[in-house]
Each structure stands twice: as C-alpha cells, then as structure tokens.
Amino acid sequence: MKAGSTDVFVVDASAALAWCFKDERSDSSQALLTRCETEVMHVPALWFLECGNILLNAERHRRLTHQQIQDNLALLNSLDPKIDDEAAMLTFGRIYDLARRHKLTVYDTAYLELAMRLAAPLATRDTDLKRAAREAGVELIDA
To answer: For 25-34, what is each residue's pLDDT tens digit?
Structure first.
C-alpha cells in the first residue's frame, strides 16, 4: 500500500490499456493514471494476462512497436497493483453466478466481483461491465 493511502479502486484491462495507446488516451484516463500515485489499484490476477495478450496482439498487428510494448509493460509494472488471488477460487461459485445474472463473461465478472468485495469503485471502458456495475450498485470511475 502506498504511504498514507487509504483509498482503493479496481481497474480492468480496458481502462489500463488506454494508457498504452495514444489514440485511446483521454483526460479521464490520464486522471486515473495519476490516481495510482496516491491510491491503491487492485486487480484480479488475470489482469496481467489480459494486458499482456492485448499488447502482444498490438505488436503482432503492428499497432505498437516492440519498444513501445516494452515501455508500456514497464509502465504497467511500475503501478505496483495489489493482486487479488481469490477470484480463481470464487470462479465456480460467486463469479459464475454474477456472470449469469449480469450477462457478462467470467473474465469481466472477476473485476466486478472484486470491486463488490472491496466496496471499491471500478474503472472500466467496457460498456457491458459498466452496465453490470451500475446494476450491482458499484461506483464507476470515468476511465
């Protein structure tokens, strides 16, 4: 936890990757990145796999260069997110049930469930996840 910080929030891959692609950056995505300096960003363990896969595909499709990927990986690593390992154990119960109820993928539901469990706001750019968060009473952060 960062010194003096008591605020926490959850960030999904769609929100985090806006920091990595120039054409997806916005004032709100940059404000979210700044928030990482004073608050604790929480992510389910799958966040790293999702981000890594999207960046790898961006390189394969020549959207980003290898050096840009390396720079983005360094940025994401520097954020020192708090990794939640509980989601894997909750997949066949709570997460599955939430995914069914809110018509989400199990992957996206891991972020929703984490935000609910922590009573923390969620940063996402995913339309379906935003809808589900609203339905579940989870505060959203503009990303």
So the answer is: 999 999 999 9
